[in-house]
C-alpha cells in the first residue's frame, strides 16, 4: 500500500528564516553561463534543474527525484504508448524529434476511478516527485479491477481503491505518496461521495441516510414578493423620492421577483451570506432589496435595468450612511460643555414629515443598529461586486465602495473573536453565522479586487479573527429541529481563521480530526493568495524583474497549498460541478488554487491592465509586456500542470458545450484564473521552443517532456486543428501548441457572460490567439 511521502519541510513547519535561500537569479553566474529573458540559466545549452539552487548547508538535489536523475542510458527515445509516455533524455541525438502521435495522457488527467476524478491529487504537486513516475502510479484500472474494487463495500474504501490501483498490483512504499482518505462532516464516510448505501444500511443507520440525502436545497422561493410586501416597498420608495434619482421608477412586483430570483439562483450560491430558510423581503429594508435586485438583473441579462437599480441603491445607502454620520456628529455636538437648546431649532433642509419620521425611526431602533448596519453592509458588498466586474465606467465606484465596506466591516467586528459555533439556540446561531458569513464575503471580495486590479486588499489577514464558516447543510437547516439533528453528526470547527492559516503555512494538515467546510476552504485559499500578493510587492525590483520569490517562501507556500488541497479533498461539499446541490464554492476554490501556483512563479499582477477594460491593452500587456516568470524548475512545472488541468476540464465537457452553457454558471473567478493560465502556458511553451531550437529535444527534462505530451493530448482531443501533418521541426511544433492552447481558451469564452469583465477577458484571449497565429504564419 502506498504511503504518503512527506517532505522534510512538512515535519515541523517552515520558518522562512530557516531556509534562507537566496533568489536563484542572484546566484553568481559561472563562466560560460548566461541568463535569457525567461530567467533560465544557460551553460552550453543545458538548463539545469532546481538542484543547482543551493546555499551553504542546504541543497534541493538530494530530494528532487526528477527523471533527469534516473539516468540517460539509451541514445534513442522509446515511448511505448499509454505506458511510458516520456522516455529518458539522450546524450547524443542530433536528429531526435518529439514523438507527438505516440502519447495519450487523458487517462492520467481524467481518471474516473478515484474520488474527485477531475481534481489532480495533491501529491502531483510535490516537487520532490517526478510527474512521470506519479502518472504511472495513477493508472486507470481495467474493468475487472473495478469490479473487484466495487466488491470491497460501498461505505468503505482501501487506499488502493482511492488511487484507482488494484490491490494485486500494489506499489512499493517508496514509489510515491497515497491519496488522503476522504474525511467528511459525518461519522461514516462515503467513498464515492455520490452513490447511496444499500437500503438495509440506510434503514439501520440514520446518520448515513442523513449524510447521503443531504439538506442543500430548501424547498422555498425567497425571491417572490407578495402584494403586501411590494406595497410596503412602493410606499418607502415614495417617501424617499427626494433621495433617489429623479429618473428612477420602481420595477413591477413580478420584475423585482424575477431579479431577486436571478440573485438567489446566480450570485448567492457563490457567496452565500443570507439565510434563505428564514429569508423575508420585509426584513431586509429597501436598500438591500434594491441591491440584490440590481445584481439579479445582470443574471437575467437585463443589464440596463441592473445599472438603473444599482444607481438608486447606491444613492439610498449613501444617504443612510450620511444620516447615520450626521446623527453621530449631532450627538457629539450635544455633549459640548456650553451646549444650550437653540441649536435644536435648526433642522435639515428637507420636508419635516420625512425628517421627523426617519429620525424617530433611528431613535426607536437604536437597539437594532448592528442589524441595520449589517443590512447596509450586505447591500454595499453586492454593489461593490457589480461595480468591480461591470462596465469600465463604474470600476472606479467599486474602489470607493470598498472603502465604505472596510469601515463597516471593522465596525461590525471582523477583528474581534466571535465565540465560535457553540451557541445552543438556532435563532441566535443563524444571526451570528449570517454576520460571520457577511464579513467573510467582504474579505473575499477585497481579495478578488486585489487579484484583478493589483491593489492592496482593504482587510489584511492579520486583522481577521473570525471563526471559520460552517458547512452548507447546517447553514441551510430550515428549522431548529433539523439544525439540532445536524449537530449530532457534525462537530463545528472551533479554530479561527488565524489558527487555521498558520497551520497551513507550516505545512500541517487542517482537516484532522474534523474536515472543514467548503466555505472555510474558500476563505483560506484567499488567505494564501494574500500572502503571495504581499511577498510579490515587498520584494526588491531585481527580484520582481526575474519573477523569482525567495526559495524558502516558495517551498513554504507549496507545502501550504498541498495541505490545503488535502483539506479540499477531505471536505464532503467539495465538487467541480457549479450546479451541484453542494454548491459551487469548492469549484471556485480550485480556480484560486491554480492562481496561487501561477503567481508563485510569475509576477502577472502589474501587467494585466484589467481596470482599463481594453482588450488590446490587456492582450499586449501580457504578450509584449512580458511579466517576469521564474526559471524552469519543478516548481514552475507544477504551475504549468495546473494550467493544463484547467484547460482539460472544458475539453472533457466539450468546448462548445462549456462556452454556451457552463459559462453562465461559472464564477468570474474562473475567468481571472484562465487569463493567467493562457499567459503562463504561452510563456512556458515559447521558452521550451527556444530551448529546443538552440539545443535540441534532448536538453529538456523528462518532466517537461511529460507536460508537452499532456498539452498535445488535450489539443488533439479538442480537435480544433489538424495535428497529423506537422513538420519535423519540434520548435515550431511547440510554438504551434502555444497558439492552439490560446485559441482553445478563447473558444471557451465564446458564450454569454454575466459581467463585463469576463467578456473583456474573452476578447483579450482571442486577441492573444490572433497574435500568436499571425506570428506563426509570418515565420513559415
Describe this structure in words.
- With 780 residues, this protein is an all-alpha fold.
- The protein is 52% helix and 1% strand.
- It has helices spanning 8-11, 106-109, 131-137, 143-150, 159-163, 199-204, 206-213, 227-239, 253-267, 286-299, 303-334, 352-364, 369-389, 392-412, 426-453, 472-475, 480-487, 497-505, 518-537, 541-546, 551-570, 585-601, 615-623, 634-653, 655-660, 668-695, 702-718, 730-748, 756-779; strands at 33-35, 41-43, 54-55, 58-59.
- Strands 1-2 form a two-stranded antiparallel ribbon. Strands 3-4 form a two-stranded antiparallel sheet.
- The protein is globular, with a radius of gyration of 28 Å.
- The neighbouring-strand order within the major sheet is 1-2
* Number of helices in the DSSP assignment: 29
Termini separation comes to 52 Å
Care to count the β-strands? 4
Unreliable parts:
1-94, 146-219, 339-369
What radius of gyration results from the CA coordinates?
A: 28 Å
Shape: globular
| Beta-strand percentage range | under 5%
What is the mean predicted local confidence, pLDDT?
Answer: 76
Q: Supply the helix-strand structural class.
A: mainly alpha
Q: What composes the largest sheet?
A: 2 strands, antiparallel
InterPro entries: VerF-like, XnlR_reg_dom
GO molecular function: DNA-binding transcription factor activity, RNA polymerase II-specific; RNA polymerase II cis-regulatory region sequence-specific DNA binding; zinc ion binding
Region (Disordered): 25-55, 143-191, 338-363
Main location: nucleus
